[in-house]
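dumping this here so i dont lose it
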């Protein structure tokens, strides 16, 4: 039976996959995985294969984006195939496209969800899920160019009082992982040009590192203070809070060591 199941691996290491995910993989004829859309710092392919009792075929960005996942689709046409993905499998649009292609080819698809950075940020910071607006990725500045889209997204979210989740660029092939400091530097460069007071040295932000690990770093403070802190190893994530509910303010003070003065931001 032609079948393709997307299985989420979670956030940090091979132990983040669910029991349902393990059961699904063990029943598969072929197993593939990609690790370029997100970084799982402590994942061991050897340990993963031992746990799931299957060999895993690696796929690259080129396999999925330039060759449209043909390697996976060919296997799925012949039998039960599993595609292992960091985090929750359909957060990345590339994977949604692959699922659509599979369905159009008559391949039955399914999803086994995993922990996502989206839900992890909510849990670690104490900010409320329904108070987040559009999220955005802050990319590396190549050839001196600085993308203004992240600034624009934060600006629009701020106007309506909602929080902004900022994913920080990763380039696994180059072993480059944007830090909280680099993300903030990018936004400050745009602020100098735009002057909309979106990301000033005194703007409140939240930096999160290694979500999903036993020792994540979570710190809320003004931009200039966050830039002076060492968040440790990747991956890093940023949040720009909008209007704060009083419970959110207390959560940031308690869970992210935010300054007491943020109580003044409660509306």
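and the seq i came up w/
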């Amino acid at each position: 039976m032609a079948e393709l199941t997307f299985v989420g691996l979670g956030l940090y290491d091979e132990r983040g996959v669910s029991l349902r995910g393990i059961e699904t993989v063990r029943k598969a004829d072929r197993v593939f995985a990609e690790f370029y859309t997100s970084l799982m710092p402590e994942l061991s392919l050897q340990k993963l294969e031992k746990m799931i009792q299957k060999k895993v075929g690696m796929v690259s960005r080129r396999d999925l984006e330039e060759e449209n996942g043909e390697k996976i689709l060919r296997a799925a046409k012949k039998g039960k195939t599993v595609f292992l993905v960091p985090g929750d499998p359909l957060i990345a649009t590339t994977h949604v496209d692959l699922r659509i292609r599979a369905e159009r080819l008559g391949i039955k698809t399914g999803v086994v969800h995993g922990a996502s950075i989206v839900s992890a940020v909510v849990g670690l910071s104490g900010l409320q899920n329904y108070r987040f607006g559009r999220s955005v990725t802050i990319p590396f500045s190549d050839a001196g160019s600085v993308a203004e889209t992240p600034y624009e997204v934060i600006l629009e979210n701020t106007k309506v009082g909602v929080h902004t989740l900022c994913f920080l660029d990763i380039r696994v092939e180059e072993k480059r992982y944007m830090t909280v400091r680099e993300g903030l530097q990018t936004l400050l460069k745009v602020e100098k040009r735009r002057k909309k007071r979106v990301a000033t040295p005194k703007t409140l932000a939240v930096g999160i590192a290694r979500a999903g690990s036993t020792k994540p770093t979570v710190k809320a403070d003004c931009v200039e203070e966050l830039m002076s802190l060492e968040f440790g190893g990747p991956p890093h994530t940023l949040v720009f809070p909008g209007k704060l509910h009083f419970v959110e303010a207390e959560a940031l003070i308690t869970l992210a060591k935010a300054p007491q003065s943020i109580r003044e931001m409660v509306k």
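The chain has a mean pLDDT of 95.
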